[in-house]
């Protein structure tokens, strides 16, 4: 009856939607060994659970077909059965065995994915071997600091492929959660402590996904929780080194070339943007002073405010009225800049590039 | 005084309900109020799904969405599901154990009025500056920062209604331990009574952590303490621990009575006793116990460490074992039986596959490293709606049909019931099945909207359509209720014909004193035993005599009302963090507390011995067929 039609629909849905989603966002399209481990766990657990569901459904179906009250049997009283010790044992022991078998990969993966001790391995010169990123979550933007490279950036996280990237995670105001679904599970950013984990970005999968993975905030943090996206650019080691070197060279502000951009720089300084937004990657201020995204290499960013397409029109709209795009953001609600000032600012900011 | 009058005016009826201590009338109050909040929570759900129907929608603003989303969860769990379950516990458990009322009728009324005023206070937030907006879990760092008084409505409202829940839990524990009829040993209690018993024990142990957590949050926000302020040496993670040490047992408080309801319905409509009764009792107790051992599976991504995560993962998986035992025992109850598919049975049949799906995704989430992907996504939303709707809501809808005759004396339309079930079942799966995939595809939860181009549009649209179907289903249920009430066709004591337990041996609804003579319990499924021997009535355990009954009282309403007033005083006190403290804050707080403690003092100092129904009146009742 209707149960069969429904189950066929579900099967169809499962087939249609499995392995589904976008390669830059879906956990079903793992782009590194952490997400792959987790997907394997999904398959193992789902298989065991489908077996359980099948057993239940088979008994259920037989019951519904065989034991419905038949015409003429309105007064029949069936045999009142107290129970069966044998059955109770069977359906206690088998689930226990299934759970024990699921526990083994669970515990193994817990310790494997939580193993960050290699984070502190140093080479002969005392330099850390692994790449470590300090992630600081704020309302509603992400700061990424590479402590060993002296680089502070934000919103776009640039990482090399095919190596373990370690993260120190914390939040500066309320609890957020750092999540790159295609690369692996999330880890909360707390205000109380620093969490640590690692991710790996596979080179081929990164290429398939256009080298750009979507990052999400995964803990309700306010009205703009849904807009607290960040991006991960997973590039080859060489490209990463190139970017890192360029960022490191970006010690003093690159002077704007065009007149409009120079005007923009003045607007930037007059309106005190510089008080919060550093424009060079070597922001030496303490964390508590870094209250806004670092704008070094802003011209090469993939999004404006994490969610808008990166073009001048959006940039001007954002600067003029951030509250419209991200209610509750900590910059300001509305600016009162003239069209001319906005043009100049946009020209200046788009020109902040450490490399082409 | 007694309430035997046959004809009542509206005013007299209202006064009766405001002062009643009768568990049957209190059940009406819980059912009506809880039902109202269920509709409210349902509207909030509808708004959520309308907003998420398409990307970048602006049906509601982001702030309003957070408020609606928070209130949907808070209302459904605290103001709809729990009270409606209390309605059925009140209506049924005293009858199932052969008692005339619960152990503490006055407290029973108090429990209801505390829930009423707590729920009222919480929902006044909509009109007084905004509802709470930090999720039903109200995590400490976010909820401290929340502007306006929304979170204060949350803490104060839940504190008040939480007192009510705690009191009711204690009441049912005392009732079930002390007031069982002669011959009813623990292992002869019906399963709904057993699950009420275990759930009440869970309430007793789980609500205090919530009370503590909420007090700490309240003091931080209203009286300048720093329990959760990290800069002042506080800690936000401790909120998560307190909340989930409450929160996980809470879901078992919800689901165990639901299991109990199905354990009554399935044997009734299979004409067969519950298979494996002792295993079912054991499984219930084990689920209750294990429910306290797993709270940190809500915190796998918080950073508690590998050892903690591994331990809680295994403990969580363990709960699947007793739950599975229950599912198989229900199936084997039906096996070899004579199954009649009435509306309550239809919901039971819908429950089994739906709850199993929800349960197995729970086991999947117990795999901690997998949960790092699933946590805080729509996969979790799918899971808990599958177990809550597939388990608790189906049980509530089933019990509504099943117990309607016992509670109101009429019977809901079976035909319309089929329509409600079909629409609701299809709508439910349509809404929530696809959400598993939305979560896997990268959609976090509690998002007010989502951007296009991420592959999330189709799933969200399907999900929203299902919600509309469920809304239509609920409307058909309302139509059913209205039509049945208008038609007012009375039914007998055992309208389903196959009742097994003692509530089906007395009139529908029962006389206000329940049993003329306390019944003698000769075994499990007491009424069935009597029926199989051709008896038309339960065997009495005592001769006909005077019956001692409690008096009505207006004091429970005032005790609860006093706290309601005090809550306003606390919220607007000069020290509050919102900064809009008023000079009348503290005086109002004191006045409110004075009303509460004053009423309690009156109750303590004035001797109230109740009244007696005389034997002669009972015999007259027999002849006159009067009902309370």
Q: What key phrases describe this protein's structure?
A:
heterodimer, A: 356 residues, alpha+beta, Helix Hairpins, Immunoglobulin-like, 3 domains, 5-stranded mixed β-sheet, 12 strands, elongated, B: 628 residues, mainly alpha, Cytochrome C Oxidase, Chain A, globular, disordered N terminus
Radius of gyration of chain A: 27 Å
Distance between the termini of chain A: 64 Å
The coarse overall form of chain A would be elongated
Low-confidence stretches of chain A: none
Oligomer: heterodimer
The named CATH superfamily of chain B: Cytochrome c oxidase-like, subunit I domain
Mean pLDDT of chain A: 93
Structural class of chain A: alpha+beta
Helicity range of chain A: 25-40%
Largest interface in this structure: A-B, 98 and 95 residues
Biggest sheet character of chain A: 5 strands, mixed
Based on DSSP secondary structure assignment, what is the total number of beta strands of chain A? Answer: 12
CATH superfamily of the largest domain in chain A: Cupredoxins -  blue copper proteins
Q: Which strand order do you get reading across the main beta sheet of chain B?
A: 1-2
What is the total domain count of chain A? 3
Q: Per DSSP, what share of the residues of chain B sits in E-state strands of 2 or more residues?
A: under 5%
Q: Radius of gyration of chain B over alpha carbons?
A: 24 Å
CATH architectural group of chain B: Up-down Bundle
What is the structure about, briefly put?
Chain A has 356 residues and is of the alpha+beta class.
Question: How would you characterize the overall build of this protein?
Answer:
The complex is a heterodimer of chains A (356) and B (628). Chain A has helices at 2-17, 33-66, 85-113, 203-208, 237-249, 259-270, 312-320, 322-325, 339-350, and strands at residues 131-138, 141-146, 151-154, 156-160, 164-171, 176-180, 184-189, 195-200, 212-217, 230-235, 303-304, 308-309. Chain A is an alpha+beta fold and 356 residues long. Chain A has three domains: 2-68 and 81-113, Helix Hairpins; 120-249, Cupredoxins -  blue copper proteins (Immunoglobulin-like, Sandwich); 259-350, Immunoglobulin-like (Sandwich), CATH 2.60.40. In chain A, the strands form three sheets. A five-stranded mixed sheet of chain A has the order 3-2-1-5-8. In chain A, a hairpin with a 2-residue loop joins β1 (131-138) and β2 (141-146). In chain B, α2 packs antiparallel against α3 and α3 (62-96) packs across α13 (378-408). Chain B has 19 helices and two strands. Chain B has helices spanning 10-19, 23-51, 62-96, 105-124, 140-145, 150-178, 191-223, 237-270, 277-290, 306-334, 343-366, 368-374, 378-408, 414-440, 457-487, 526-532, 555-571, 585-605, 615-624; strands at residues 547-549, 611-613. Chain B has a two-stranded antiparallel ribbon. Helix content of chain B is 66%, strand content 1%. By secondary structure, chain B is mainly α. Mean pLDDT of chain B is 96; it is low at 1-6. Chain B has a single domain, classed as Cytochrome c oxidase-like, subunit I domain (Cytochrome C Oxidase, Chain A, Up-down Bundle), CATH 1.20.210.10. At the A-B interface, α1, α2, α3, β7 and β9 of A face α3, α5, α9, α10 and α11 of B.
